[in-house]
Every structure is written in C-alpha cells, then in structure tokens.
Amino acid sequence: MNFLKALGLLAALAAAGCASTGGEADPRDPFESTNRAIYRFNEGFDEAIAKPVAGAYHDNLPDELRGRVRNFFANIADLLIGVNDMLQGKFEDGVIDWARFAFNSTFGLLGLHDIASEGGLEKHNEDFGQTFGRWGAADGPYLVIPILGSSTLRDGLGTLLDWWTDPVDYVRPIRLRNSAVVLRAVNTRADLLEASRLLEEAALDKYIFQRDAYLQRRRSLIYDGRPPREAPESAEPRSEAAPVDAAPAARVDNVYLPRAPAHYEAVMATLNGTPGQ
Known about the structure:
The chain has helices spanning about 1-20, 30-60, 65-85, 90-105, 115-120, 130-135, 155-165, 175-190, 195-200, 205-220, 260-270; strands at about 140-145, 150. It is an all-alpha fold.
C-alpha cells in the first residue's frame, strides 16, 4: 500500500510539474490553473464523501470516545515526531516526544489517555517536510495534490517519507491496517468540521485563502513560530502571504494532522491564531 500511495503522489507531483499556466501572477504558484482543477476535485470528494461520513461519525460518537481515538493516533505519531526532532538537532524535544510515547503507551493504556501532557511533557509538531526545510530545502512550487490538498514540492517529497515510515501502515493483518487508516482519517476530518464551516463563511476565494494560509503556516512551523524576517530588498519570492509575527505560534496539540488533507491543517491553524501560523 505504501508503494501505491507513493506512486500516486509521485504521479501527481510530476503532472503538476509538467503543467503550464501561461504565467500566473503569484510566483509561488506557477501551476495555478492545474492546482485549481485538482482543488475543485478535492472539494467535490469532500462534499460527497468525506464530510458526510465525518459528520455522521461526529454525531453518533460521544466526544470522550473520539478524544480517545485522537489520543491513540497522536501517541503513535510521537515516534516519528521524535525522529524528526533528532534529525533537526532538537535533541531535547526528541527525548521529550519519545518519553511521551513511552508514558502514554504504558500508563496511558496504549495512548488512549494523554497522561504525558497532563504531566507537563509538551507535544511537538514535526514531519519530514519540516526537516527538509530546516536543512535548507526551498519550498518549491505550490501544489494541490488529489485528496491530500495543499502541499509544495518539498513537502510532497516529505509526505512520501511520512508514508513510508508510518507505523500504522505496518499493522497486520491488512484488514486491521486498513480499518485503522480509515478511522484516523475520519476522526481527523470530524475534528475539523467547524474549521471548514468557518472557511466557507470567511473566504471570498477559498483557494487563495488556503494556499496563503498553508504556505505561511508551513514557514512558521519550520522555524518553530519565529521565522526570520526577509530583507525588504530581497528579490526572492515570499513564502508567506503576509508578514509573520515573530511571537511563538500557538500549537494544535490535540489533533494529529500530518496525514490529514493539508488544506484542513491550514484552516485549523486559523482557529488557534492567525492564518498560517
């Protein structure tokens, strides 16, 4: 399954890279016409399948049970978050995230209870796309990937590694693995129902809003909420839609989002601070 997902994402990246739009105004989004077409497909999929399923799940399961599902998958995510901490040289954060996994997996009953947060061990948000960014890799062109949503060339390649190393994908039997993948996706989408409703009400052009929020948020995440200010005379394209406050960004600690459609992640960020934090 990892191979099929990787092949699909590589095909989407290649198709976007070969597209031509006749020169769009925003240099970060050279494939805007193709991206908008994929965006419309994603919206149709969400309206027809993802949102109704998530709504039924939200309405029929109590908050406490959905919270336990969220905690379980967030606990699994701490393993790879710790790996990315280490790869970025954040050794203390890495030890904390692995300690979170150890405590929650044992005393927290396989992560169903987040006792690590209650004990003061802060949860972090790292993935391979952020690691590449910390190593100096540029964003590359903005891309909208089928089903997954907003990305960049760098983050798309990071997503491939996220998939290859995702512990859930190695669960056996296959039927159990597939059920876990679907449950995680549905629970995450259910957590973001309110965010998508606010987007519908707030954005005149949802595509532009989500693109700018995503790029700004990713830049902030790479620098842990303190992105360097670009010199006014710099000729390099900006990675964000507006100046970013140098103050630390609020974190979305209760929702595990690396496998969620990226445009939902950007909208969730708007509920916890400024767009694209």
